[in-house]
Each structure stands twice: as C-alpha cells, then as structure tokens.
Amino acid sequence: MRITTPLIEKTQYFVKETLAQAEGGHDWFHIERVYKNALLIAASEKCDIEIVQLGALLHDIADSKFYDGDETIGPKTARVFLESENVVPATIDHVIAIIENISFKGGRVERKFSSIELDIIQDADRLDAIGAIGIARTFNYGGFKNRSLYNPEIAPNLSMTKEEYKNSTTPTINHFYEKLLLLKDKMNTVSGKQLAQQRHHYMEDFLEQFYAEWEGRK
After folding, report:
1. Angle 173-175-178 (CA atoms, 0-180°, nearest 5)?
2. pTM assigned to the model
3. Which distant-in-sequence residues (6+ apart) come within 8 Å of 213 by Cβ?
4. How far apart are CA 171 and CA 202, in angstroms?
5. What's the rounded Cα separation, in Å, for the pair 91 and 93?
6. CA separation for the pair 178, 167 (Å, rounded)
7. Contact 31/57 with Cβ under 8 angstroms?
C-alpha cells in the first residue's frame, strides 16, 4: 500500500531536512523504516492511510530525549508544519495525538488516546526497536550517551517510573530487559505481533551469545 501524494512528499522532505543531523538511531532512516513497517501493517487493517503516513513520518520529528525531556516540542513542530500545509484540523489533531501517545516511556504510562492508526504506527515503531535493527540502534544510542556495554553488578530495573526511565544511565544491555524484550507482548495488531516474534527470538539469541563471549564460555 504505497500511496504518495503531494502532502506526503512534502512531509517526507520536511522530515529529511529536519533530521539531517539527528543521532543515527533516530534519523531519517529510522523514520523511513517505521513508515514502511506502518504501510505493511496497515495493509491488513481498516484505517485512514493518510493519517498513518503522516503519523509515521512525524512521530519522531523532535524526540524529547534530545530536548532535555521536553515532550511538547515534537507535537508543536508537527502542528506548525501541518498547519502550513493547510491540513484539515481533524487530521492534525489525530496526528498530534499519535505523536503524544506513541512512546514507550517505561511501559508504565497508560495511553490517553486510542485509534487503529496509533496502534499501527506504535507497532511499526516498536518493530524498529527490536531484532537486528533494534540491537544496532540500542548500542548506537548507548555509545552516543557514553554508556557502558554491560556491568554485571548493575541489575535491570523492571519497575521504573516514567521519570526514572527518562533519566536512566544504566548499561546498554539493561535496556534489553527494561524495554526491548517487553515489546513483543505489547504489540497491538495481529500483523505486528507476528512480525515481532522472529525479531524477539533474534534478540534472545544475541543475548545468549553476548553472555557466552563476556564470560569466556565456548
């Protein structure tokens, strides 16, 4: 399901330009992968494809983790752009609600908005956080934040509050247990759940290999 309209083309250009200097795990290529995943999932769902496209393209236009935790910048940036393109208010409001509710945020925060379009984009975003790409992105961000790879003395925190999750500085391996391995059971759509299974198993295999090498086992 690839429907490219002038609005979608302009949105793609806007996102590419805005994220030209973004960290490697949250750059245009992340957006493009989420966009493709969203279209793949949307093909099996009854949804508004334009909202799926816009939401996927704009969901990380200004990730709060790169703006001192400010969660208002992304929605504001997206709204200004969509209004400049004379998008109807109902569509703008829906896209903004998606941006405001898509993030994991530690897994203990309840969504304040629901729609099939949000379900699709959230699944697409979570698929990019697991599997081979998810592993690569996790270590890329860990390096960006100068975090250690692993410290056996620092256990994962599985009951973090939203603020603790946002401010965490724990080793990169802990992130697998605090987020990545939890995502398989948090998928919304049938297609999303099916796609997540194989990527989840890949991460489990990676961790098994990682610990074997860390501990000097064959």
Report:
1. 130
2. 0.90
3. none
4. 20
5. 5
6. 13
7. yes
